[in-house]
Amino acid sequence: YLPPTATESTARLAALRGAMQARGVDAYVVPATDAHMSEYISERDARLGWLSGFSGSAGTAVVTLHKAALWTDSRYWTQAERQLDCNWELQRTTWIKSIGLWILEAVPVGGNVSMDPFLFSIDTWSSYSDALHGSGRTLLPLETNLVDHVWAEQRPPPASGQIYSLPAEFTGSSWQEKVMGVRQQMEQHVRSPTAVLLSGLEETAWLFNLRGDDIPYNPVFYSYTLLTNTSIRLFVDGTRLTAEARQSLQGGCPGPLCVELQDYGQARDHVRDYARGNVTIWLGTEYTTYGLYSVIPQEKLLEESYSPVMTAKAVKNAKEQELLRAAHVRDAVAVIQYLLWLEKTVPQGLVDEFSGAQRVDALRRAQEHNRGPSFESISASG
């Protein structure tokens, strides 16, 4: 018996296993994130969802030549049971240790376990490395993503929406002021880093006061930033910047407050070239992938959990606090309107959880400056 919500994954798994065999891979690990460790991802990055049918926001799959298993937490067990077909084992845990133990049982000694190094954070990669250490199995970084390889033309296209400047009335300070603040932190740090590398999408969006719509419910766009004492390099699809955004970034050219635009796909090669010099690169380990991290020599790294941009972004200045309060007031008006509507319609039997969620979304959209919800409404009763 399979519920009608299950995805038929036999052909997809067969194609993946063919690609694994061609490369001598005995187990392939597929996470539910993207190259920026984003909590929410675009359809193009939903590799786990495409391969298995499971569409929850947290999960890890491991595929061997004969087995396939999915690990997820208790929020998603019922959903996974309804979305996975009989090719999959559901593992009700998220610990890497338990994934490691499963791999050790499923993969013989001498086997290769492969992962895309651009889809795992530094810490997560280390955890897998520790779990397999001394077991006779090899952890092999594989830069060709095998799911992308078999997904081929069916894979959704890259984002193409505009990247725009946030109006000045919605920013606590200009991007130039933010850059100068980060450079000041670099100068004051005991290690005197020469550059800051930003991988988290919200870091770059906040730093430059730019917004996009590459990921549903998140006003971000795919990008990396390498900020040095004298230069600023933004790795992004520059064709998507509005004329106003481009002018904002390049108004100070040439000079230390000039943003040099580079292709998004060039980030790793550029970081590797930069790391050949007499430099120290400051990065946040929470958002940097092992793939980027591994091109920087260890002695040239300054590692902290969060970059100076992430910590600066977390402290809201007076203007930002005022804007947050105003946004919450507008949102409260929409919620009060919704509660009033519920009082009238629920006794008449005219509303269910789904139509209720649609109603509150519509009331929020009617408020000034609304750009949509930060996640799909979670609506329940009873």
Task: Explain what the structure shows.
The chain is α/β, with parallel strands linked by helices. The chain has 14 helices and 14 strands. The chain has 3 domains: 9-154, 3-Layer(aba) Sandwich (Creatine Amidinohydrolase, Chain A, domain 1); 164-314, Creatinase/prolidase N-terminal domain (Creatine Amidinohydrolase, Chain A, domain 1), CATH 3.40.350; 318-366. Helix 4 (96-106) packs across helix 5 (122-132) and helix 13 (318-345) crosses helix 14. It is flat.
- Could you name the CATH class of the largest domain? Alpha Beta
Q: Please tell me how large the radius of gyration is.
A: 23 Å
Examine the secondary-structure arrangement and name the CATH architecture of the largest domain. 3-Layer(aba) Sandwich
- Total discrete domains: 3
Briefly note the structural class of the backbone: alpha/beta
Q: What is the name of the CATH topology of the largest domain?
A: Creatine Amidinohydrolase, Chain A, domain 1
Question: What's the multimeric state?
Answer: single chain
Helix content: 25-40%
The CATH H-level homologous superfamily of the largest domain:
Creatinase/prolidase N-terminal domain
Order of helices and strands: HEHEEHEHEHEHEHEHEEEHEHEHEHHH
